[in-house]
Amino acid sequence: MSSPGTGTPFSFGQRRIPRPRDFAEYLKFKPIERDAISRRLASAHTLEDMARIARRRTPKAVFEYVSGAAEDEISLARARDAFSRVEFQPHVLRDVSQIDLSTSILGRESALPLIFAPTGFTRMMQYEGEPAVARAAQAAGLPYALSTMGTTSIERLASAAPDANLWFQLYLWTDRQASLDLVDRARAAGWDTLVLTVDTPVAGNRLRDVRNGFSIPPKITAKTFADMSMHPQWWLNMLTTEPLEFASISYEEGTPSQVVGSLFDPSLQLADLAWLRERWEGKLVIKGIQDPQDAREVVEAGADAVVVSNHGGRQLDRAPTPLELLPRVVDAVDGRAEVFMDTGITSGADMIAAVGLGATAVMVGRAYLYGLMAAGERGVSRVVDIFKDEALRTMQLMGATSLEDMRGRVSLRP
């Protein structure tokens, strides 16, 4: 046998002296990317990658406020373990050239079965805050819920993303009139969906925040001063933009748990839900369901949707694991309301697994916050792209062309 183009005989495995032109195929360097954010996001292939970038760019106390959970963080670990036990049942020899990931969420079309969950203190994570998240949601065609504990007002967010599907998340305070004022403002802004969170009679014990000395607003102590040298851009943005504050509430300075404890009403009960239902004409979502009987009761009281949630593991540690509980809640609701879930969702495959077990859609908070911390609005959009790509690939390998095809094809191994 001859070597190509030379006519010189050689055998396989025989060594030869390379010529300069032999290196040509291996020396094709990529063009230098001049945009710093594009360079940063080029290494974000998964949510875990995005979290690593976020960790590098954000002070420890802030990053761990997002990534951490309550007490021993058992609930959060169990949530991730549940997704590791998911088993898909694929079908082969199916035409998967066209995949439809869209769905209807509370009567409106959504590009994915994905909702941006309400998160507090969002401008703390990155100075652009809620407007950046809302614009990314608007561009992606996804719903986004603004938190009562948000750092952007209802009116300002409506202006920042006028075509977004914006929801308002409500905590009922001891001052009911103050809560109703927020509801009225959301209605006046044209928002038609209210999310009532019901798993916070008191604040969870988030020990990372305590140990890190995390406070609202952040304070410059000896510990944080040292951290400033590691994250100068974050501090520069924090100190040179508008002061960080809650947009919807008045509060005293303190840890997140202290702020929550001073405002929330531990006497909240089912009668309060009926009271709110009478005053809100739009869609009503109840977030924090951890028992099938509770799901039945809130639907009977007028809820249009429930969220199977343990607050991302941030409230009661050792709470029920949402993915494991999901099928029982779906059965209890029996088609009378939509069922969403959150906690532990870190990929498009996780999202598809939840849909296969009966969820209409999933809510994510940490996921888009990692994107926000890593690269602002463009980071949030990149997270959506990651979820979409992973979901598409999962469904193609499953032999499924629509979300409905996933029903009954997902199980949890023991």
Automatic annotation (TrEMBL):
Pfam families: FMN_dh (PF01070). Transmembrane segments: none annotated. The active site is at 311 (proton acceptor). FMN binds at residues 118-120, 147, 169, 197, 287, 309, 365-366. SUPFAM superfamilies: FMN-linked oxidoreductases (SSF51395). InterPro entries: Aldolase_TIM, Alpha-hydoxy_acid_DH_FMN, FMN-dep_DH, FMN_HAD, FMN_hydac_DH_AS. Keywords: Flavoprotein, FMN, Oxidoreductase. GO terms for molecular function: FMN binding; oxidoreductase activity, acting on CH-OH group of donors. Glyoxylate binds at residues 65, 171, 206, 311, 314. Gene3D superfamilies: Aldolase class I. Residues 39-414 form the FMN hydroxy acid dehydrogenase domain. PROSITE patterns: FMN_HYDROXY_ACID_DH_1, FMN_HYDROXY_ACID_DH_2. Its cofactor is FMN. Belongs to the FMN-dependent alpha-hydroxy acid dehydrogenase family. PANTHER family: 2-HYDROXYACID OXIDASE 1, S -2-HYDROXY-ACID OXIDASE-RELATED. This is Alpha-hydroxy-acid oxidizing protein.
